[in-house]
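The authors assume throughout that readers already know how a fold can be written as discrete tokens. For illustration, here is how one protein appears when written out as sequence plus structure tokens.
>
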Amino acid sequence: MKFLSYLFLGILLIIPKSFAKDGFGPLKFSSNSYQSFIEYLTGDYVPTQTGVLQSKGGRPLGFAINQEGDTTSFYYCPRKYGDNCAPGAQIDAQNACTQRSKKKNKGRCFVFAKGRVIVWDDLSIKIPRKPTMEQIKKIFSEQAWY
């Protein structure tokens, strides 16, 4: 019985696992990719007269981009689902992005943001819940992403 336990544990350690990998290195967003990130933060791109990005309600879960900056994928949990959105959305976003990127003969995708936190290059930049366009532009400008 002890042997079977060790065998089972050994198999679990050998099986490859799919973990999201945070992005690194130089990155330049295309205008479409930048627009996609805005949609990720808000659930829809709706600037108000005051410049605040209006969310339809819900929360961003995971955003991935390739290192060429032209292919993205993200998961956003609409308010109507409450807390019933699948965990591990950044892994799903990375996998979906990579599939689309490889179809274009481009490189693999990596996680850019988890929730409202940008994690590229080991950063931890928290995005406010209701950011303005100026706040987002400032972050992207300071990091030379756009």
